[in-house]
Specification:
Layout (H helix, E strand, L loop, with lengths): L1 H29 L4 E6 L2 E8 L2 E5 L6 H10 L4 E5 L11 E4 L17 E2 L11 E5 L4 E4 L6 E7 L5 E4 L6 H10 L10 E3 L11 E3 L32 E3 L2
Parallel strand pairs: 3-5, 10-12
Antiparallel strand pairs: 1-2, 2-3, 2-7, 4-7, 5-6, 8-9, 9-10, 9-13, 11-13
Length: 242
């Protein structure tokens, strides 16, 4: 009887301990102060602060919906997932794997996960995130306001150009729509080759890929803020909306 009672007590203690751990993990994922992007700003390697140290997130099952939840917790409108240690490998522990979200959750705490302290991941699988909100766009150095070199307003308040690499008609139509021009896909025209000059700012967007369903350019898939191999003298994109 004594042994059975001790086993029952031990079982209850283990259950209570497990519940307390799960509660602590949920509290962590509810707290934006325990989530960061490295190196800093609106993009970087996703890290969580848990058990007294920062650690990474395995990219298994992580997608744009989970990235959007992360970015909303950090104060942005949405996000895109990047895999394979896109912003470099972390050095601390890998805290969690298999984060899956519907994209509508208020925090990562409401998402499911595949387990804490996973043993099947290494830092080559660290998750990265690029966050966005509605960044203004403009057309400059053209003869009229409806055409010119495309620029987007960066998070630091400076304007930067957009590279033509991978540019497609859906991108052009979305830019014109964001600027208030009601044009069809075949009427909006992209003008490459840095036809409107190189400008003075950096190249902020490269590899832009829009589907046409986005509401603004910064919500499209792209390589990351300021991540580019673009030659500003020959590869900046311009747009003609009329």
């Amino acid at each position: 009887m004594g042994i059975l009672w001790e086993l029952s007590l031990l079982s209850q203690l283990l259950i209570a301990c497990s519940a307390a751990t799960a509660l602590a993990q949920r509290h962590l994922l509810d707290d934006a102060a325990s989530i960061r992007l490295v190196p800093a700003g609106p993009q970087g390697r996703l890290e969580l602060f848990y058990n007294g140290e920062w650690g990474t997130v395995c990219d298994d099952s992580f997608d744009d919906r989970a990235a959007t939840v992360v970015c909303r917790q950090l104060g942005y409108a949405g996000g895109r997932a990047h895999w394979g240690a896109y912003f470099g490998e972390g050095t601390g522990p890998i805290h969690v794997t298999g984060l899956q979200c519907a994209g509508t959750e208020p925090s990562l705490a409401a998402c499911s996960n595949g387990g804490w302290s996973p043993t099947t991941c290494d830092h080559s699988e660290d998750t990265s995130v690029v966050c966005y909100d509605k960044r203004p766009v403009r057309l400059v150095d053209g003869a009229v306001p409806s055409h010119g070199r495309l620029e987007v307003l960066g998070f630091d308040g400076s304007w930067g150009a957009v590279c033509e690499q991978g540019w497609r008609p859906e991108n052009t139509a979305l830019v014109c729509k964001q600027l208030g021009y009601m044009v069809t896909l075949d009427r909006a025209v992209a003008i490459g080759g840095s036809a409107f000059g190189s400008g003075d700012g950096p190249v902020l967007m490269d590899g832009v890929l829009c589907t046409g369903y986005e509401r603004y350019l910064s919500a499209c898939l792209f390589d990351g803020w300021g991540i580019t191999e673009c030659d500003p003298e020959t590869q900046l994109v311009g747009v003609d909306c009329l």
